Amino acid sequence: MKKNIAIIMGGYSSEIEISLQSGNVVYEHLDREKYNLYRLHILKEKWIYVDENNGEHPVNAADFSIIVNGYKIKFDCVFNAIHGHPGEDGTILAYFDLLHLKHTSAPFYQMAVTFNKRDTLSFLKPYGIRIAKSFYLNRGDQIDNDRILKKVGLPCFVKPNRGGSSFGVTKVKNADDLLPAIELAFKEDEEILIEEFLDGIEISVGVIEYEDKIKVLPITEIVSENEFFDYDAKYLGKSDEITPARISEKQKINVEIAADKIYRSLNLNGLSRSDFIIVGDKPYFIELNMVPGITAESILPKQAKAAGISLKELFGNAIEMAINK
Question: pTM for the whole thing?
Fold first, then answer.
């Protein structure tokens, strides 16, 4: 008997359009012989099921069900394709747990921790994961440029603590540009992170739970046309993403060990993507994406393909792993 699968997309953050693209990629590639698929748009103003004719049907938030042609439909599993709040930060997943509804992401606590860059870095540092020097600010804190730059130096990166797709991120080269960068980041979040610039090879690596085993995917080297791997580089083709990465065997092994340790230390499951800068032979962890992009331009699908895993297999495995837990 076919299982009913809700693919949730949209969200409440600046990443809404990317999430809608990701959700539709999942919808296009999942096996319709095994699953009944439903696209659910989770938006600030409404939660709706969007049918094949773009008709809208409200979602009953009491039990996360929908009514279609007079029939009530409940779901066996939710495929989470929401980048940012409330999908990637665990908020909606806690709600699903209350309903005993299975989903493809890690547990809500792990999602909340990993969505918070500061908390992730603090959690991983005792495990020997190398990280860049950083400075934290909350909205309302006194901003002391000299103190900040004494710790992180120039150039440096200013970024929202909880966010993705490089919204609100600035590479600061001059001291006079620090305050405008901080103000921009505060438009995205109440907390920001200021990190030292690491001069090295930028790479990204997917780690997934596949057929009951933790699997590190082929590593991607990122060569951006812009100052860093920003929104245009990620989604508008202004970067070269080379898989497998042009790195040494020693660098490759060090990255794989670090990525695997991060996934295990945080007790994760589902799809993930870790970003690093390799300096010499040593990988420095930058951030973790627990609802990574899965659009046509995204890194994780390309890595899966390089590993011999089709999108149909990748997404279907995520659902089966969730259902069988």
Answer: 0.89
Cα separation of the two ends of the chain: 19
Same domain for 153 and 295, yes or no, is no
For residue 157, the domain's CATH number is: 3.30.1490.20
pLDDT, tens digit, 9 for 90 and up, residues 236-270: 555 789 999 999 999 999 999 999 999 999 999 99
The residue out of 196, 212, 241 marking a domain boundary is 196
- Distance between CA 109 and CA 117 in Å, rounded? 14
Both structure tokens of 244: 């497998």
pLDDT digits (tens, 9 = 90+) for 26-75: 999 999 999 999 999 999 999 999 999 989 999 999 999 999 999 999 99
CB neighbour list of residue 273: distance below 8 Å, 6 or more residues apart: 204, 205, 206, 207, 288, 289, 292, 299, 300
B/e letters for 100-139, b = 16+ CB within 10 Å, e = fewer, are ebbbbbbbbebbbbbbbbeebbebbeeeebbbbebbebee
Query: Both tokens of residue 226?
Result: 């812009």
Rounded to 10°, the helix 145-152/178-186 angle is 90
| Residues with Cβ within 8 Å of residue 54, at least 6 apart in sequence | none
